[in-house]
Specification:
Blueprint (H helix, E strand, L loop, with lengths): L31 E9 L4 H4 L4 E6 L12 H4 L5 E3 L1 H13 L5 E4 L5 H11 L7 E5 L5 H6 L6 E4 L6 H8 L4 H15 L4 E2 L5 E10 L5 H15 L5 E5 L20 H13 L4 E3 L19
Helix pairs in contact: 3-4, 8-9
The structure holds iron/sulfur cluster.
Iron/sulfur cluster binds next to loops.
Length: about 300
């Protein structure tokens, strides 16, 4: 827990003295806070399967994406403070409910507590652990998780520092995120699946196609293609971008991505030889964002 004395867990490195109750830029304080722990059926098919992924939504977030769909928990840090022991119980309860994996959503700011909880749960936890992140991660923090995480599920949001600065207040996102993905690939081998097609280990990189962001999506894919030369991973191209609220500063964010934009990005991914997943554009978008009502906490 000494990590919380002057927190540098994420690339913000804000140095918050969380141990004394100070709040970091991510919104987190000393305590471990969770907004929901429940089966979730709208991840990639090899993550959700028939019985669902055991998602644990952590409160707070190191990124500040202005279009975030989980605004209540990311920016407002809604959730309930729980103990490390309780988090370990939650992991096992999700396994008991039939979850294909424990899916840690936005976990960065609680990595030390999560490691403690995984140590407690380890003797009984048989399902893989998924680390589901916006991609804004320090390599040093990811190294703490080596041997604890089986499946890395990072976003690769931007290649353009200006867009990263404008939309997520993180102009260094591209260099940070691609270095983080390289570290995740170093820790994992090729993707592995069980007899039912469920992922046991590996890396899936997600990219959300954004309105007006097609050229940057192409650059993201090119960066990822470079990384793939060293280690295989799957690519998940997402079309679910939905305006969270009217944005007066960046009006280009006030619409959904067009069919043309999404199709062109998918075509380019195919040209580059990526394997993975695409989303139905007609998919019901509300389902991707569950109610944050402390279910299962
Ligand atoms: S995880 Fe939160 S408290 Fe820690 S460095 Fe990042 S923003 Fe600051």
């Amino acid at each position: 827990m000494s990590y919380l004395e002057q927190c540098r867990l994420c690339p913000r490195e804000c140095g918050a003295v969380r141990q004394s109750g100070h709040r970091g830029l991510c919104g987190a304080e000393k305590s471990l806070r969770v907004a929901r722990a429940a089966l979730h059926f709208w991840e990639e098919p090899c993550i959700s399967g028939q019985t669902g992924s055991g998602t644990v939504f952590f409160s707070g977030c190191p990124l500040g994406c202005r279009f975030c769909q989980n605004h209540d928990i990311s920016a407002r840090c809604f959730g309930k403070d729980i103990s490390v022991q309780r988090l370990a119980e939650i992991f096992l309860e999700l396994q008991q409910q039939g979850a294909n994996n424990v899916n840690l959503v936005s976990p960065t700011q609680y990595v030390p507590q999560i490691i403690e909880a995984l140590d407690l749960a380890k003797p009984e936890l048989k399902i893989p652990v998924v680390y589901n992140t916006g991609g804004y991660e320090r390599v040093e923090t990811l190294r703490m998780l080596e041997g604890y995480v089986d499946i890395w599920l990072p976003d690769a949001k931007y290649a353009d520092p200006k867009r990263a600065g404008d939309y997520s207040n993180a102009a260094n996102y591209p260099e940070v995120a691609f270095a983080a993905i390289a570290e995740m690939l170093r820790q994992e081998g090729d993707p592995e699946f069980d007899q039912n097609g469920m992922m046991r280990r590996g890396v899936i990189v997600r990219h959300l196609v954004m309105p007006g962001g097609m050229q940057d999506s192409f650059r993201v894919l090119e960066e990822l293609a470079n990384l793939r030369q060293k280690q295989h991973f799957l690519l998940s191209l997402m079309s679910q971008y939905t305006p969270y609220r009217r944005d007066e500063t960046y009006p280009e964010l006030n619409r959904r991505v067009s069919s043309y934009e999404y199709r062109r990005v998918c075509e380019y991914a195919q040209e580059l030889g990526f394997e993975g997943f695409q989303q139905e554009r007609s998919s019901a978008k509300e389902e991707y964002t569950p109610d944050f009502d402390l279910t299962g906490v």
